[in-house]
Design goal:
254 residues; 8-stranded antiparallel β-sheet; elongated; alpha+beta
Length: 254
C-alpha cells in the first residue's frame, strides 16, 4: 500500500489532519518544532532516504546542516521528483523550497515549554513559513521536521496543538494532510529550481518567477467570458426591444 494512502493512518493521526491542512491558505505564519533525540549521525542522508521512501527525490542545500543554524536563518531543499498522485501545475519541474530554520541544543525547561509529552531530547528545531506560502513550501517544512524527529526518536509539534507527538506519528499525520492535496496545485506559487541561494544575507540572488496557478487563470478567463456573454445578451435584448417598440407603434397607427 502506498505511504500516502489515508488507510495507512492510525486513528489518532487521522483525527488531527484537518487542523493544519485548513490553515494553509490562512493569513498567518505556521511554526513547526522538532525536538530531536540523540541519534543524529548521518542525519541529512537519513532525511533524503526517508523522503525517497515516500516517493520524493530531494536534496538539501550543500552549505546547510540540519543541526546548525546558518546566516540565512533558512533551510533550502530542492524537490526534483514528487509522488505521481500529487497534483502539479508543472510536472517534472524541480522546485526550490525553503522555510525559516533555526536549531540549538537543548536548553533549560521553562513554564509551558517544551510542550507537553516531550521527554528527553538533544536539539530543538524551530521552523516557520509565513502567509503567502505555497503548499509545497509548507510540506517541505512539515515533512522535513517530522522526518528529523522520526529519525532521531524525537518529538514533533505544530504551534497551537495541545501536545507534541512522537516523530513517527508526526510524519504519519503530515502524510495524511498531503494525501488531501491531490486535487490542489502542489507547486503553485513555488519557485522552480535554477540554482541554490547564497547563505550569506548580503549576497544578491535572482529569484526565478514563481509557478503560476492554472486553476486561478481558468477562473479569471471563465469570469471574463461570463461578463462578455452578459454584455452581449444586454445588447441583443435592447435590439429586440426596439424592434418590438416600432412594431407596436406601426400596428397602433395603421
Amino acid at each position: 500500500m502506498h505511504p500516502l494512502d489515508m488507510r495507512t493512518l492510525s486513528p489518532y493521526a487521522a483525527v488531527l489532519i484537518a487542523n493544519h491542512f485548513t490553515t494553509l491558505a490562512a493569513p498567518m505564519s505556521i511554526d513547526v518544532y522538532g525536538f530531536l533525540g540523540s541519534d543524529t549521525q548521518d542525519l541529512e542522508l537519513k532525511v533524503i532516504q526517508t523522503y525517497k521512501s515516500l516517493g520524493f527525490t530531494v536534496a538539501i542545500h550543500p552549505e546547510m546542516n540540519c543541526l546548525e543554524s546558518n546566516p540565512s536563518a533558512s533551510l533550502y531543499i530542492s524537490f526534483t521528483e514528487t509522488p505521481p498522485q500529487i497534483g502539479r501545475v508543472c510536472q517534472g519541474v524541480p522546485l526550490l523550497l525553503g522555510f525559516g530554520y533555526s536549531v540549538g541544543k537543548r536548553g533549560a525547561r521553562s513554564a509551558g515549554w517544551p510542550p507537553k509529552k516531550v521527554k528527553q531530547y538533544a536539539y530543538e528545531v524551530c521552523t516557520r513559513t509565513s502567509a503567502g506560502r505555497s503548499i509545497a513550501d509548507y510540506f517541505a517544512q512539515a515533512l522535513t521536521v517530522a522526518i528529523l524527529a522520526k529519525e532521531t526518536n524525537g518529538y514533533f509539534y505544530i504551534n497551537g496543538d495541545d501536545v507534541a507527538v512522537p516523530g513517527d506519528l508526526g510524519l504519519e499525520r503530515i502524510l495524511g494532510e498531503l494525501n488531501r492535496t491531490t486535487g490542489c496545485e502542489f507547486d503553485s506559487g513555488a519557485y522552480p529550481f535554477k540554482a541554490w541561494p547564497p547563505i550569506a544575507p548580503n549576497e544578491s540572488f535572482a529569484w526565478p518567477e514563481p509557478i503560476a496557478s492554472v486553476q486561478h487563470q481558468r477562473t479569471e478567463v471563465a469570469g471574463s467570458s461570463r461578463g462578455k456573454r452578459f454584455k452581449l445578451s444586454v445588447i441583443e435584448g435592447l435590439g429586440w426591444a426596439l424592434v418590438l417598440y416600432f412594431l407596436i407603434v406601426t400596428i397602433a397607427y395603421s
